[in-house]
């Protein structure tokens, strides 16, 4: 499948997957994700976060300051995070959502097979091994029993985000340094 074909398949799947995840996360079915909703969902997946952390995660996405995440805020967050090339976008809720998208059966674990399917649609065959390695870290991806729970997934994704930010900073520093060298040579 070509890159454009994969992108089209992924783009068609996103709205349905996002809606499914939003409905699961909206535990009281009031049309918004509250701090309590987030705590219940993360606890269900065995990822214990403190109420203060849940409040911060909601705050990062809450545009209208009602201390909840609406459907619009949820989809806006997802789009921003998917398009972020800097690694600077707050992604704590995004990582939870990505886990839930991949974990279609809500079993609380992502198998290598589930991850491969999703990563292939996002990145193609060329980057698959690197992305799989980033996601699973030191877990043997050739082991058919290898799985990630939400806590390990979020940890791996946060490390990936830090790596992305570091690379962006290094590249920017190199670019600035070479630009300064060029400009100092041309002045004299």
Automatic annotation (TrEMBL):
GO terms for molecular function: calcium ion binding. The keyword Repeat applies. One of its GO terms (cellular component) is myosin II complex. Keywords: Calcium, Repeat. CDD domains: EFh. Residues 13-48 form the EF-hand domain. Pfam families: EF-hand_7. This is EF-hand domain-containing protein.
